[in-house]
Each structure stands twice: as structure tokens, then as C-alpha cells.
Design goal:
367 residues, alpha+beta, Aminopeptidase, 27% strand, 3 domains
Length: 367
Amino acid sequence: MGVRSARLLDLPTIRKLERDQTASVLSPTLAPRQPSAIALTVLSNWRGVGQRTQTLVHVDGTESRGFVQARSRPGRESWDILRLACLAHDDATWERACAEILDCLAIAAAQCGALRAFARVPSDSPHLTFLAESGFRQYASEVTHRGTLRALAEAAPTPRADVRVRRPRDAWDLFSLYCAVTPPLVRHAEGRSLKEWIAGPRATHTGFHNWGWPREVMAGEPGEVQAWIRWEPMHPAGLQLLDVLVRPESTERLGELARYGIDYLGLDADCPTVCKVREYDGRISATLVEKGFREVLRETLLVRHTAAKVTERQLLVAALRAQGLGIDLSHYRTGAEAAQHRLASSKGIERQYYDQFDRTERASYYR
């Protein structure tokens, strides 16, 4: 029994597990351009691409009983777990197999430079407890609304002069907007960097409308962005995804941005549109519901910090850096005892740091 990288010979088993509803723990929900399990397995076997995708299978003798798939975000510091499926004869074996797969994925992602892995499951999922026991921590809830752009843009005023298509140099303004509207605890859990916003859209010109690339609209002067909206097609589902970042005092400008997209970017006003809104963005949800959108899904967002094996030299470098920071190293030992002591100490320091951080941030957030 063990976990290894998926091979092309595993494609029939992966297809079977993907279609088995009883084996599914994590599965893609409403998201754009989500590759199938087969496609992602093939990509994981390509040289170079495998550094951005991972497909691991759990093998018991000659039989594969489970698999997990993950894909990196821009910057490769964060990974999203897309699928997890596992079959077993009893609950104890099932939990042990799933936990082993997730542990191996965390190590594989860390060796590719990842610092954290994310997962999302429906809020009523029976597997939330298992994921919490496997090292995942809940940091936010997300509500998916469904409606049309025409309903959102109806009765909206004429777009003002500061409404424009997003440009590559607007990455810093978008990152600043994200930091301004996101609670500190969520920002700390997500760890999103400027790299994710620099990636931006590949094209927003109307000439590329049929290519299905995302289109983005912003409102506000440079350095004072008030709102941002991005549309992205979801071809297999016949939907389009709407991402929103808006300052609380500018929520009423959502309709204005939607009207700009319809008039100048040629967006389909009657295409079914889904909008994912964090639960702490209550004003956005209220505005969407007022415009005819309805709630169709509620998800829990989870994060797990990754860990990788390190060499003795890396431990020595970390010890020297700790000494430079004034951290006490009087308990330093050598050999296996030292390694065990350092591991226990690092876990204790990390736990103490996160406990103190959570208490401080919660106190400042709810004050």
C-alpha cells in the first residue's frame, strides 16, 4: 500500500473513480475551464507541466483505490486541490487512505515551492470533519449567486468617465483593493501576492470575444480604484463567471460596471451568470439578490500549510538565521536527538505563533 504519481496506465481507474459518487470527497464545483480528471492526469505526465499540476494515486497491491489532483496558482506559492476520491471497505481504511494521499500531496506541492494548499467543499458536506482532522483550517465561506447581467445592469446610470477596461499596469491598484476589502484573517490564510494580479487577463479587447478569454472592468482613478469586475466564460456549463471586488461605499456601482461591459465589451446580457461572493461581503450579496440573483450554492473554504523534507544543511542555515534574529538555540543537540528536538520545537513555536496571531487579529477585527 502506497502513494505514487499517476501514470497513463491509471487512466481507466481514474475515470472510474471520478464517476463513482460514493468515492468523491472533493470535486470541482462551479468554476471556469475546469479540466477533466483524465485531461489533468495527462498534463501531469508532461515534462515541465508536471511542476504546475499533480495527480497522485493510492495503490493497494495491484489495485488503485483513490487519487487526488491539484493545480498551482500563478506564482506557484499556492495550490488548489481539485479532486479527491477514495474507495475502501470500511470507514477506518477510507480515512487512513485519504489522509495518506493528502499528506503526500502536501509534500509534493512543497517540493514544487508551494506554501499552502486550498480546498473548497459544500458547507453541508459530511467530509468537513475529516478535512479538519487532516490539517485543513476553515478561513471563509463563499456564496454562489445566479442571475443575468441584464438584471444587474437594468436601470443603471450611464458609466462615468472613470470606468475603463483593466490594463496590465493596474495590478498594484487591484492588489490594494483586495487588501482593503478583505479581513486580515482571510488575507493571512490566502497569502495572495502581487504575482496573482500581475498575471491578469490575457486579452480584454472585443476582437477576442469569441476566444472565451476573461474581460475586466474597473472604476476609479489610478491609485483610488473603487470597484472591479471580471467575466469569464464557462463553456461546458453554458454559463459565465462573475468575480467582484468593491469597496463598501461603492457597491451601487456594480450595475454601472455591468452596463459598461454589455455596451463596450459585447458581453451577453442574457447568458446565465454565476457570481461567487464571500460571506463577509454582505452588501454585494444584498445588491445581487435585489437585482434578481438567487443563491444556488454555499461553500466552505479551507487551507492547509505544506511541509517538505529538509537536509541537515538547510537546518543549519535555518539555525543561523534564527540566531541572527535572537532566537534561543541553547537546546541545540546533534544527531537523531537533535533532529527530533528541532522538529518538536518548530511545531511548538509554529502553534504558539498562530495562536497568538489569531487572538490578536480576531481582537482587532471584531473590535
